[in-house]
């Protein structure tokens, strides 16, 4: 089945109408990343064997790149307060300790995957500890922050002056299992997108997606598969361009809490537009074969304090967008509270990105457990339940799925 190509959509005017942005100082972007596979606790026992790792661990350029992405600091929606010794200040790193890092690597992102290409304008700050409660009357010393760079393989030194950072994610279509591993296509698509962005940092995401699609078609390591895609590049001057194909998506939340949320592209209920590689034996059998040109294009202008969120449908199927905005506001309020006056603006942006990504994954996974019967059936409904009802299906509650969230918070360059 082939869908009629959707019109190109320019979000710039929509976003400027709710919050005009003028040319301002150069920006950096703090990155937050969190992901969790559906085949991971609490939806399976901790003794359960993790699902496919795709290309991870393979001694190939693609395999090493997947390992590099998985080495980035990330959460899996398991925020908790760090234990502290008696007499110390009540500080928290959000539960991103060694155990969390091990769990993230063990369980992975399932059929979702992501790409980060640093064009030289990412904030360099290792996460500082934040205060979850008001500090004692004795202020204590400011927590020293540790600075670290992303792994050098994320950057292309010859092109760093272009200051074009790319973030992207993809959701592999599970219907190819068990004959084909759905995670291979999404990982390969992100790998080839990252290669295109590294070779040409100023490339428009829709052009990068075309190159990635063609490269996967020619990649002998991927026999078959399909995936959605959402990709953005973020420039030092605040200009941002994006493309979205399928039911992954993005949100832009301005510092005044006004927001723009993308709409899913679907052929019909629960069947998103998707890029595909079809093996010869299945061609001509009605398998969906969408093209990168069918993705929606977006252009926006970002300012300091604006938040860009990319997410797979594991989030958007389960969590209403108004909840996303409410959680973003709550995190902003926490970081601006008296308890966290010790944070610099750079530290605050970094913590906002990290915490928001992890809180959204946690909220999305919690919503997956909803039954639709909360509060006698009068509680809030998941977007998946609402859409199912519109299509004559009684599928109450949440939908257990892989979930991946990337957050970029803009901040004035110091």
TrEMBL record:
<feature type="domain" description="PPM-type phosphatase">
    <location>
        <begin position="147"/>
        <end position="410"/>
    </location>
</feature>
<keyword id="KW-0378">Hydrolase</keyword>
<keyword id="KW-0464">Manganese</keyword>
<dbReference type="InterPro" id="IPR036457">
    <property type="entry name" value="PPM-type-like_dom_sf"/>
</dbReference>
<feature type="compositionally biased region" description="Basic residues">
    <location>
        <begin position="138"/>
        <end position="149"/>
    </location>
</feature>
<keyword id="KW-0460">Magnesium</keyword>
<dbReference type="InterPro" id="IPR039123">
    <property type="entry name" value="PPTC7"/>
</dbReference>
<feature type="region of interest" description="Disordered">
    <location>
        <begin position="134"/>
        <end position="157"/>
    </location>
</feature>
<dbReference type="GO" id="GO:0046872">
    <property type="term" value="F:metal ion binding"/>
</dbReference>
<dbReference type="InterPro" id="IPR001932">
    <property type="entry name" value="PPM-type_phosphatase-like_dom"/>
</dbReference>
<keyword id="KW-0479">Metal-binding</keyword>
<comment type="similarity">
    <text>Belongs to the PP2C family.</text>
</comment>
<protein>
    <recommendedName>
        <fullName>Protein phosphatase</fullName>
        <ecNumber>3.1.3.16</ecNumber>
    </recommendedName>
</protein>
<dbReference type="GO" id="GO:0004722">
    <property type="term" value="F:protein serine/threonine phosphatase activity"/>
</dbReference>
<keyword id="KW-0904">Protein phosphatase</keyword>
């Amino acid at each position: 089945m082939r869908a009629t190509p959707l019109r190109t959509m320019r979000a710039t005017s929509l976003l400027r109408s709710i919050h005009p942005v003028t040319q301002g100082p150069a920006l950096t972007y703090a990155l937050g990343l969190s992901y969790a596979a559906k085949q991971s606790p609490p939806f399976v026992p901790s003794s359960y064997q993790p699902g496919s790792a795709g290309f991870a661990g393979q001694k190939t350029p693609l395999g090493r790149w997947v390992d590099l992405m998985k080495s980035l600091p990330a959460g899996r929606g398991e925020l908790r307060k760090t234990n502290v010794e008696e007499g110390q200040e009540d500080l928290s790193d959000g539960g991103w300790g060694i155990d969390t890092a091990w769990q993230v690597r063990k369980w992975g992102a399932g059929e979702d995957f992501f790409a980060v290409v640093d064009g030289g304008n990412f904030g360099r700050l290792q996460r500082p500890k934040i205060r979850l409660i008001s500090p004692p009357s004795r202020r204590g010393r400011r927590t020293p922050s540790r600075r670290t760079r992303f792994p050098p393989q994320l950057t292309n030194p010859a092109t760093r002056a272009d200051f074009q950072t790319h973030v992207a994610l993809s959701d592999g279509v599970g219907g190819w299992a068990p004959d084909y591993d759905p995670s291979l296509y999404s990982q390969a698509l992100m790998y080839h997108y990252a290669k295109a962005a590294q070779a040409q940092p100023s490339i428009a995401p829709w052009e990068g997606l075309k190159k990635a699609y063609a490269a996967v078609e020619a990649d002998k390591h991927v026999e078959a598969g399909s995936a959605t895609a959402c990709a953005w590049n973020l420039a030092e001057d605040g200009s941002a361009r994006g493309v979205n194909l399928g039911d992954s998506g993005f949100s832009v939340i301005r510092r005044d809490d006004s927001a723009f949320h993308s709409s899913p592209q679907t052929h019909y209920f629960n069947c998103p537009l998707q890029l595909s590689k079809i093996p010869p034996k299945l061609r001509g059998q009605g398998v969906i074969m969408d093209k990168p040109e069918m993705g929606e294009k977006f252009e926006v202008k970002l300012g300091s304090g604006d938040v860009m969120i990319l997410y797979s449908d594991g989030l958007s199927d389960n969590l209403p967008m108004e909840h996303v905005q409410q959680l973003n506001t709550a995190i902003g309020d926490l970081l601006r509270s008296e308890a966290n006056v010790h944070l610099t603006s750079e530290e605050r942006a970094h913590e906002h990105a990290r915490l928001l990504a992890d809180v959204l994954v946690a909220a999305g996974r919690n919503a997956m457990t909803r039954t639709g019967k909360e509060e006698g059936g009068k509680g809030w409904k998941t977007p998946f339940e609402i859409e199912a009802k519109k299509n004559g299906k009684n599928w109450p509650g949440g939908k257990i799925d892989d979930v991946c969230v990337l957050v970029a918070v803009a901040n004035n360059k110091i």
